[in-house]
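Researcher: Here's the sequence for the chain we discussed earlier.
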Amino acid sequence: MKWNTIKKILPVIGVGLFIYLIIKLNLIQILQTIEKVNFFYILIAFAITIIFFVTQTLKWSLLAIKQKVKIPFKDAFKINLISSFYGFVTPSKLGSVMRVSYFKKYGADAGKGLSNFIIDKVLDLSSLFVLTIGLGFIFYNKKISSIISPISLEIIIGVFLFMVLLSLLFYKKETCKPILRFFYRIFIPKRLKEKSKKMFNSFYEDMPPFGFLLFVFIINLINWMVNYVIMYFIGLSLGINIGIIPFLVILPMATVVAQIPITINGLGTRELTMISLFALFGISAVKVFSMSILGIIITNIIPSLIAMIFIMSEKKNEIHNIKTS
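Model: Thanks. This is the structure I predict for it:
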């Protein structure tokens, strides 16, 4: 089977799993559970979601400013919503890479935009792994050990350390140059060599210092915690009242599993993981699945609908400019 065919099939696995869970748990029961939701907690979750998008925008716009790309906060917020929309409909949120194209509007080329995306993505994933490992050790007890086994922690730590080593290797232009030169000479076509060289140089242009990256890393940690607090209130709205600690241990694990690129935005794999882990606390699969659906609506679908308005407005302006030029 060719790799292109495999890439098309992989995202379908998670979606198929999601549909299977809907059928297995009974759609009527899921809807009936959602109907009984406490809207007070939903409103709190929605308010925190707005705060989440504000802090997320602030994080990457500060990163852009450090790279000498000044984007007004209003524009940055709009771009963040649009990139989140594309991230929502792609495996591992890779669609958010389209944010790179917006950098050109603010005087930066694709190389700098790509470095902004990769730095943000690596720090985002690194903070997720640190949170999963840290909370796993802090709250490790008899019940929590059923969620985070020593083997799974070792795997997560191993992946995290590999990510750190790879990041340190490519952080400095001088250290990665010998490695990339090999690929440049063998795999890059002659017609693209000059363009690739230019992109490589711009990628490392105005690279933020390590201390600032640590600051962004801490903001990412806070953002993940805020994200899980949102889910905690959604859980409360459905009567899932087991305290916030299980949420802070289970949800990072489910998020790590959701990063496996066999589905769109973790759909299916995340829900299956959450159902299995919340069952240890006596929470029914229907309630957990309903919580996940409400979480998707509040943190993904509603922001995506707003993003679609921005996208359509941009397309309309582009068509107007073409007609008037």
